[in-house]
Amino acid sequence: MWPCFWDNPSPLRPTSPLLAHACALRRASQGKHELPQLVYPMYTVRQETFLTFSTMRPHEELLSEQVLELFCGQGIAIFVSHQWVGTKHPDPQMKHLGATAGGFEEDASA
């Protein structure tokens, strides 16, 4: 098991809701607590699916097409964030999307 600083009253106590949830999952797996209700569930998209994207698509669209999956703490999730480079579209020339996809492909081939 990984260390759970949430249970430790040290300065290393996490402030991240995701880390707090991970610690709650750990406690639940040890039979110490029930799983908490998620206020803001985390959705993910599989890497192989992400690599097929040719454009940035809205969350609601991906959710309705069942492309997104609710992350339940199983496996590895990678959070990607970038600044909006357009006023009406986050990545109008798909430069960030291409760079992110290229990074995933490079990592997979290593």
Roughly how much helix do the residues carry, as a percent range?
Answer: 25-40%
N→C terminal distance: 27 Å
Spatial strand order of the main sheet: 1-2
**Rg over alpha carbons:** 17 Å
Number of continuous helical runs: 4
List the quaternary state of the chains: single chain
What value does the average pLDDT take? Answer: 78
Largest sheet: 2 strands, antiparallel
- The ordered H/E elements are HEHHEH
Strand content: under 5%
Number of strands: 2
Poorly predicted residue ranges: none
What can you see in these coordinates?
- The protein is mostly helical and 110 residues long.
- The protein has 2 domains: 1-39, no CATH class; 41-110, no CATH class.
- It is built from 4 helices and 2 strands.
- It has helices at residues 17-29, 47-50, 59-64, 95-109; strands spanning 43-44, 69-70.
- It is elongated.
- The model has no long low-confidence stretch (mean pLDDT 78).
Task: Name the descriptors.
110 residues, mainly alpha, 2 domains, two-stranded antiparallel sheet, 2 strands, elongated
Give a quick rundown of the structure:
By secondary structure, the protein is mostly helical.
Helix/strand layout:
Blueprint: H1 17-29, E1 43-44, H2 47-50, H3 59-64, E2 69-70, H4 95-109
